[in-house]
């Protein structure tokens, strides 16, 4: 049975346990960072950072909002990145777990920027030294052993959840219904198209520019791109 | 904590004040959010908008150091609007007790003040006694000198307008917090407080907490599920460290340390054993003679109680206990009174107030032993910023110890759960557990005494080390047995015979005649002949009633006697019926108590619930503190104001002050309030976390958080390097300009704040910066001498640098 993440952002306190757990399990090096006036660090994803927690402030005074967004790959059902790859085996899906995986063969992809641009969420990052493209791998090694992904295991509040797809969807729906009472803008981001389902308790664009498919984004709508690619992916999967 | 972590989920209203649990106690938020899921209201009161505030239903800002004004106003609100739980306060508190005529309060000073010694004579705060020697009580609460009336009079001065003039809190926010929190005075509602260093690190730290304890008593929130007064401890085992008396003024189990006037055990025991003539008062401390005798026997098994007493160090009767605490130690170092220092698991070059002073004090030492995991700013003080190694003669030794995960032992969490931990990986290299370092050193000192003789060798030679050692190694298991205690002669308990050498089943069986030994009476019952090491228990078995409130009596052991919620007797009426049957902690079923281990025992109504107080009642009036029986607002020792609205007594008249400390009061050179706090990613002085690359990646540099208005005024932009300065030092930091910090209007004046984390130090990482304690003042609370790190005065200016220096 395929798996899914459910990320309840209303419960995220920005403790960054997930960010550090990810680095630890993947044994990724720390980046040389600076305090630039924001607590978000590393400031963005990179070939060495598959997960970073964005710490966002909106509004002033009584309207001040402090939001946290632990950003990671969404593991799309029909992955545009996969379609953008011209090297067989470079970007694959583990049909058992649902994980979308980048292999070392991504180094052979000619149009690497094309892979990055294909992603509606701006996740893939190219390692300039090796040419390999990196991103979150679902902790597929752990998951196949019946363990929780490292980030989920570290979460103290129930923001990060992982399990059978149906169970996660049910949890997401019930939390959405509950949150709607206090947060009318609450929404499940791109439900039905991703295996990493975020519940945004405020408007998704407050969390990240690419939080959800942004139809308004010019010049080429990522959703349009996705829509164009989706049938091809479907047919290639049979 | 009176309660425990998972009990937070039982609360109807959680006040987070003096703490930022989402960031500093992240796991606690599991339970906080569960309470919220069940409909609880979360309130955050904090000088800045924090991660905790972002999850709260309401947020109210206040100026650093104005908590007593805020809470005193809440007491006034509760009394004026009849929000208190009357039946509860009549039965369970000293509201009814009549205070003697000698008591008075005028213009910020309580009766008994001696301006010369800057101390109070507490005798003037005593209750009136009847002919039986029992405090006089007026159950109608009408007597003009009963605690209730005195309290009402004291806090009637804390009007909303005066409070907001002091705190800077917007009026509607203040009233909303008062109204919401005081609604927990209903008998079926529970309100709880989560506090931490935001309340303790003030010159009125103890009284900050007392004010909230009074509110909790008035609202009937102590002893119940989802209530209590909950101190969120800053280290995994800091509860254990105070239980074991890693402090100058107590022995293990919170027994007071003797003074030089108490020349023999009998005098000391008499002075440490309060008396009550009220048959309903359990007065648990009447058992002190048993605990003291058992403790002395645990130290010196071969000596008599009297002899053992003579081996123990005593405090000078003429000195304040605070003279023995941290800041005084540095004063003595500077005065050249100390030759050497063991900095054990501590980093005083960064952790104490006025760090420049501490770093200078080390230069006066002949030797300094640094016991730690890694080199730090203390061990390397001689090569630190501004130091010339050629001019420093102090010899520094470094003893590397192993980490907590490499050794076994008990860890007492904030909820008093003593949980056994097993050793993980073997210690690396030549590192040793602290216990072994202690024991090897003790053995070597004994050898020297044996070889060379010396003055008064017995206290060292007669120490009962055989009870801690397994061969040559320190044994946590044997020590745990000693802390529980043994019978020294055959003794029958409830028809069962215990042989000499067997474990004592509980502290009720300890003796005052030297026939039992116990290293810490609070631990007695944790390691038994029947159950073994109860701290190792991991059994989730519970009754249905216990399950309703998340009470796990078979998981580890909670002192005292496995009681999970202390003062639980206050959760029921005199018939033993819970105020809130839905969430009962204890309940009398007609024959026995069900639920938690009841405080005090006996049938319902036969005992007062606050068994640790002489008269059995919760203290609305607290006559034991150094700074007064009622908490009173004073300005922090450093403040933007020379006066305040409530009295002409500007700051606490009895506050602790280290020698020659320079203070900024209403000083234009230091116009902003400085405050220190913590981040999730770093721990204490950062000794461990500043060497963990992934944590440094997330929080790489010391920062100064300021509001946008101040940033504009001083031409500071996000990420700029700024110099923060106080009367005592300067610190370079990265500016974080944020809406989370807001200027407040206080006394008609706009007040800005500079918030700084104190986790950094110059050793590592590169460009990480240094400790915020370079700025803090060596002043503090008169009871505990905790430094006032949460409110001091600073200036801030932009520096023309691209980044912090290496």
List the helices and strands and how they pair.
The complex is a heterodimer of chains A (238) and B (806).
Chain A: E1 3-8, H1 17-26, E2 52-58, E3 65-71, H2 80-83, E4 91-93, E5 100-102, H3 112-118, E6 125-126, E7 133-134, H4 140-144, H5 150-154, E8 160-164, H6 165-180, E9 187-188, E10 196-200, H7 222-237
Parallel strand pairs in A: 1-10
Antiparallel strand pairs in A: 1-8, 2-3, 4-5, 6-7, 9-10
Chain B: E1 13-17, H1 21-24, H2 28-37, E2 41-45, H3 51-55, E3 58-60, H4 67-80, H5 86-92, E4 105-106, E5 109-110, E6 113-114, E7 119-120, H6 147-156, H7 160-167, H8 171-182, E8 191-195, H9 197-200, H10 205-218, E9 229-231, H11 238-243, E10 250-251, E11 255-256, H12 265-271, H13 288-299, H14 305-311, H15 326-334, E12 340-344, H16 348-351, H17 355-361, E13 367-372, E14 395-400, E15 409-412, E16 417-421, H18 434-452, H19 458-461, E17 469-470, E18 473-474, H20 476-484, E19 486-487, E20 491-493, E21 496-498, E22 516-517, E23 527-528, E24 532-533, H21 544-548, E25 557-558, E26 586-588, E27 593-595, E28 656-657, E29 672-677, H22 693-698, E30 703-706, H23 708-714, E31 721-725, E32 730-737, E33 744-746, E34 749-751, E35 753-757, E36 779-780, E37 792-799
Parallel strand pairs in B: 1-2, 1-8, 2-3, 8-9, 12-13, 13-14, 29-35, 30-32
Antiparallel strand pairs in B: 4-5, 6-7, 10-11, 15-16, 16-25, 17-18, 19-22, 20-21, 23-24, 26-27, 28-36, 29-37, 31-32, 31-37, 33-34
Helix pairs in contact in B: 4-7, 4-8, 4-10, 15-17
How does this model look, in words?
The complex is a heterodimer of chains A (about 240) and B (about 800). Chain A is an alpha+beta fold. Chain A has seven helices and ten strands. Chain A has helices at about 15-25, 80-85, 110-120, 140-145, 150-155, 165-180, 220-235; strands at about 5-10, 50-60, 65-70, 90-95, 100, 125, 135, 160-165, 185-190, 195-200. In chain A, strand 2 and strand 3 (about 65-70) form a beta hairpin. Chain A is globular and about 50 Å long. Chain B is about 25% helix and about 15% strand. In chain B, a hairpin with a 3-residue loop joins strand 10 (about 250) and strand 11 (about 255). The mean pLDDT of chain B is about 95.
